[in-house]
Design brief:
- There is one protein chain.
- It is built from eight helices and 20 strands.
- The protein is α+β, with helices and mostly antiparallel strands.
- It has one domain (3-90, 130-314): Double-stranded beta-helix (4-Layer Sandwich).
- Strands 1, 3, 4, 5, 8, 11, 12, 13, 17 and 20 form a ten-stranded mixed beta sheet that branches.
- A hairpin with a 5-residue loop joins β6 (100-103) and β7.
- α3 (68-81) packs across α6.
- The two termini are 34 Å apart.
Length: 316
């Protein structure tokens, strides 16, 4: 889709207002809990913009924004990237499990904490998290864990090819246009300024330039619990797209009783770095509940500027 086509599309989008605001603290109290239809009364399933009751943009849904040939080329790459188990990882709120102290191979308990490993999960959590995977293209944040500093580092999946990295950057470039031309151009300008202060080596590289983002997170068959995206530049907007045939897994913003239903080919822009959000249950394409351990494949890409890279911190 060309520049003028995107601009014309944005000009025709319906603008809706979220039905309520339950408050920031009440929304934050839901972190780590699973969201469902009881947490929203407004569902955005057609192209449109949702404003908060005080007039701020909460989310924008652009339908059929991405080219099918680009999606088909990127799909196997996203599948390869999303290869790390969520169980045993670090995203406890999104996993809905809480943090526990990690065990060493000897069986002793370490100072590090994380999401429980599969063997330590309840039967219900085991069935939900066994197929759930995640992974990153680009830069991990700088973190301190167990008193030890882990510097930001470039991460690529096993067997990565330069052509695959280039193609993912092209996907990023296409979704980036949606943000640049959207109703939140001030967010785009802030992110672009931040990127311009960041060494190019820390940015995703397209064929002819550098993207104003450092990282793409890829998830597979993961219904996230209520959480706020950590490390993402707060002054920007989250940009997401998905792949697969499935039903359910709508993205819910409980503070504003609003949900967004996006599917393959769509692009969603959302204030995910500042607002609590999570998914409804992941269902089969026909709307039925999956058998235990047989969740449909739903691939998601989240594009963002990781402000806690070493370069990002220097650019603040």
């Amino acid at each position: 889709m060309q520049y003028t086509e995107v601009a014309n599309e944005l000009g025709t989008l319906e603008t809706l207002t979220a039905p309520t605001d339950i408050g920031k603290e009440k929304a934050l109290s839901l972190r780590g809990q699973f969201l469902d239809e009881s947490h929203y009364t407004l569902l955005l399933d057609k192209g449109g913009v949702v404003l908060t009751p005080d007039g701020q943009v909460l989310c924008i849904l652009l339908k059929d924004r991405l080219r099918p040939e680009l999606l088909d080329a990127a799909r196997p790459i996203v599948r390869k990237v999303a290869c790390q188990p969520v169980a045993g990882g670090n995203r406890a709120d999104a996993a809905g499990t809480g943090m526990v102290q990690r065990k060493r191979k000897s069986g002793s308990v370490s100072k590090l904490t994380g999401v429980p490993c599969l063997v330590d999960l309840s039967d219900e959590d085991y069935q939900r998290l066994k197929p759930a995977k995640g992974g990153i293209i680009g830069y991990h944040p700088r973190v301190v864990r167990g008193g030890q500093i882990y510097p930001s580092r470039l991460t690529a999946y096993k067997g990565v090819l330069p052509s695959e990295l280039s193609l993912m950057a092209e996907l990023e470039k296409e979704v980036a246009e949606a943000l640049r031309l959207s109703f939140v151009q001030d967010r785009w300008a802030t992110q672009f300024k931040k990127a311009s202060q960041t060494p190019p080596a820390f940015l995703l590289k397209t064929r002819d330039s550098h993207a104003p983002r450092t990282t793409i997170t890829c998830n597979k068959s993961w219904r996230t619990a209520a959480h706020v995206d950590g490390g993402v530049l707060k002054e920007s907007f989250g940009v997401m797209c998905c792949f697969g045939e499935f039903d359910g897994c709508d993205l819910v913003f409980p503070r504003y009783q609003t949900a967004v239903r996006y599917r393959e080919g769509d692009v969603i822009l959302a204030n995910s770095a500042n607002e609590v959000h999570g998914n409804t249950p992941l269902l089969n394409p026909d709307g039925t509940v999956p058998e235990p351990g047989k969740l449909p494949e739903r691939l998601v890409c989240v594009f963002y500027f990781e402000q806690n890279t070493d370069a990002g911190r220097d650019a603040q």
